[in-house]
What does this fold into?
Amino acid sequence: MVSHVGQVVRVSKKLTIYIPKTVAEQLNISEGDKLLLEVRDGKIILGPVPKLVARRRYWSESTVEEIETESEELIKLAERE
It folds into this structure.
């Protein structure tokens, strides 16, 4: 089901965003599920990771610092080209 109705959510003290229950139900998201967060054109894109991918044992956990460092390196490489 595709929904184009936006919902306003609040960012908490620890930068937590709560997903409305109706959205979680629509996307079959439950506590403990992994989500993929992307930033595209100044917007946050958040969606469920396919369950089969999330269950693979070689799925790695990354810290925010590791992601930031890798992103900075990729930006530097892209700027050189």
